[in-house]
Design a protein that fits this description.
The protein is an alpha+beta fold. Helices cover about 35% and strands about 15% of the residues. It has 17 helices and 19 strands. Strands 17-16-19-18 form a four-stranded antiparallel beta sheet, covered by helices on one side. It has a three-stranded antiparallel beta sheet with strand order 1-2-3, with helices on one face. The chain has a three-stranded antiparallel beta sheet with strand order 8-9-12, with no helix packed on it. Helix 2 packs antiparallel against helix 3 and helix 6 packs antiparallel against helix 7. The longest helix is centred in the N-terminal third of the chain and has 19 residues. The chain is elongated, with a radius of gyration of 35 Å.
């Protein structure tokens, strides 16, 4: 039941009368209140209003606007046009939106709009006028909301969103056939500035908290579990939303080019009252994207089992292969943030959210000179205006430079600023090691499983080659540091030391197919007739830069066989070359040296 409470000052003088009740009369209903003057007239008005609330079943009396009073005594006498019903129908019938959006709209209406306008008539220019909208906005500015364990005044951004929701409903009434209203009173109402969010630390906690690379590393090091550490690093390294990164399956890792791995973002976790949590589409069309990831991130995915577990299994999960609840990760995140502050790894004034890792990812790229357009596409923003509004104030597009930026961040190295007039310049290689054996220089040697060795002037290039080898060949290659003189003594100098990343080529192959002396095709190796491709390093047998090459030659042995094969960097050219190789092999198979004293036939030009 509603009741009247006298509000007194320190001198025990009644300053106002307040009517309080729980909305709908339920025990868990939200508390509602209306204020009246402290004099006798105010007391009488409060008692009359209290009685009206009780008569309406603990609802706001029809036609009453909070803070303004009764606008019309006969308000909303037609239920079809009562705002609660009209607004609910408006939200329910909206197209192209998800259930989660509808649920959120209904919740916002019930909490912040219905208490003021719920019983009003959507057609009434008295119920919905510029004055009533202004009174409602002013009331929202005084509304205290809870965010986690904290309470604060409602932010200008939230007020803007609520005003936009009300405006869209009234605009629908304006555009109805026939029109229910002449105009939308929400238009022209000045709203609080979205950048005027208070002056104290507690009042600006909705602002973006940009984290420095070393602060991200510090928080990651304080995470309780290895998966938690990897998640912090990967959200920062990819800029993915929580719903996106927690929905990654192993099949979303694209290793077609092992030096430049990518992930495909095609889905995200969603939630609605009717379905609970479910897999759906990302936030927008541009959110469906494919992005480069660093080798650091790739290693994290490998450690999560992305290459060994089922293709549809989640990369990040709850330990049983199921969805990782946000609340579980949030608790670990908050504990790590607090621990990082205690260890001096994070300033005490910073209170980052998980989503701030995404913001910090964008900040790292923009601060290193990458364009807003590149950042927009990487983050999956539908409009570049969103990117500009969020990050346009940061310091001033190539994928390679972007990957270097993020890897440097995660490895604790300084971010280098990149000038991008047209394209990112190639970073200058470090000087090759000196030829002198006694100057203390070192080379970084990759030792392959077959014993072959390649030396590099830079450790990062050597480790990159070893990582790529492991990914593509499923074999370990170790990296050793050796004195430059040791290498020079065994290899006749340092000319063969790689000062930069060595060349690679994607080589297409067909064959070999084998023919007998009578032209009959023998059983070929599995896949000999199928076009296949593999990356080949410049020091490996089979490396070439030519579009296509082929051979048709006699093989050794008493069976007098002839082989045909083709290879090269161009798929179509290799197919054509394979036809030539087989044609030639069929022409010469009857002239095998062991049948007729002839030499091995070389490929025709």
């Amino acid at each position: 039941m509603a009741y009247v409470k006298e509000m007194k000052n320190k001198d025990d003088v009644v300053t106002s009368h307040r009517v309080r009740w729980r909305l709908g009369g339920a025990r868990d209903g939200e508390w509602q209140s209306e204020r009246f003057d402290g004099d006798e007239a105010g007391r009488e008005a409060a008692e009359a209003f209290c009685a009206a609330v009780n008569e309406c079943g603990q609802e706001w009396p029809p036609g009453w606007v909070k803070g303004k009073g009764m606008i019309a005594p006969d308000a909303a006498d037609e239920s079809e046009y009562r705002f609660t019903r009209y607004a609910a129908d408006s939200v329910d019938h909206r197209t192209g939106v998800e259930d989660r959006y509808r649920d959120a709209c209904h919740g916002e209406l019930e909490r912040y709009v219905y208490p003021t306008f719920g019983n009003c008539d959507v057609r009434s220019s008295e119920h919905f006028s510029r004055r009533t909208i202004q009174a409602w906005v002013n009331q929202l500015e005084k509304t205290v909301v809870r965010r986690g364990s904290k309470t604060k005044l409602m932010s200008p951004k939230t007020i803007k969103n609520l005003h936009g929701l009300l405006s869209s409903i009234l605009q629908e009434a304006v555009e109805a056939d026939p029109p229910l209203r002449d105009r939308n009173p929400c238009r022209g109402v000045r709203l609080p500035r979205t950048d005027d969010d208070g002056t104290t630390d507690d009042e600006i906690d909705e602002d973006i908290e940009f984290l420095l690379p070393e602060e991200v590393t510090g928080i990651a090091s304080c995470m309780r579990t290895p998966q938690g550490r990897r998640l912090v690093e990967d959200i920062y390294a990819t800029g993915c939303r929580w719903g996106e990164i927690s929905a990654f399956a192993c099949r979303h890792l694209d290793t077609a080019d092992a030096v430049k791995p990518r992930v495909r973002i095609t889905r995200a976790w969603k939630w609605s009252k009717s379905q609970g949590h479910y897999i759906g589409k990302p936030k927008s069309k541009r959110s469906r994207r494919s992005i480069r990831i660093t080798l650091h991130t790739f290693d994290n995915w490998v450690e999560q089992g992305a290459l060994t577990r089922g293709s549809d299994e989640l990369v990040y999960h709850n330990g049983q292969g199921e969805r990782l609840p946000y609340s579980t990760f949030y608790d670990e995140w908050m504990a790590a943030v607090q621990r990082a502050k205690e260890l001096g790894l994070l300033p005490a004034h910073k209170n980052p959210t998980i989503h701030d890792l995404r913001h910090s990812h964008a900040a790292a790229l923009i601060s290193a000179g990458h364009s807003l357009t590149y950042v927009q596409r990487r983050l999956g923003h539908e409009s570049i205006k969103t990117t500009s509004d969020l990050y346009g104030h940061l310091l001033p597009e190539a994928d390679d430079a972007a990957m270097t930026t993020i890897d440097a961040s995660l490895d604790g190295l300084p971010i280098t600023h990149v000038a991008l007039p047209e394209r990112a310049p190639v970073p200058a290689a470090r000087p090759a090691v000196a030829a002198s054996a006694g100057d203390g220089s070192f080379v970084h040697v990759v030792v392959f499983p077959d014993g072959h060795q390649e030396a590099f002037a830079r450790d990062d290039f050597a480790r990159l080659v070893a990582d790529v080898w492991k990914l593509e060949r499923r074999q370990e290659a170790r990296v050793e540091q050796r004195p430059a003189g040791w290498w020079a003594a065994r290899h006749g100098g340092l000319d063969g030391v790689h000062p930069a990343m060595p060349a690679r080529a994607k080589i297409w192959r067909l064959g070999p197919v084998v023919y007998g002396p009578d032209g009959e095709q023998k059983a070929a190796a599995p896949g000999a007739h199928e076009l296949r491709a593999a990356w080949v390093w410049e020091w490996e047998e089979g490396y070439t830069t030519e579009e296509a090459g082929w051979s048709a030659q006699h093989g050794p042995g008493p069976e007098c066989l002839t082989e045909a094969a083709a290879w090269g960097t161009d798929e179509k050219a290799v197919r054509a070359a394979f036809v030539k190789a087989r044609t030639k092999a069929l022409r010469i198979c009857g002239r095998h040296p062991l049948l007729a004293q002839s030499t091995v036939v070389q490929p025709e030009p």
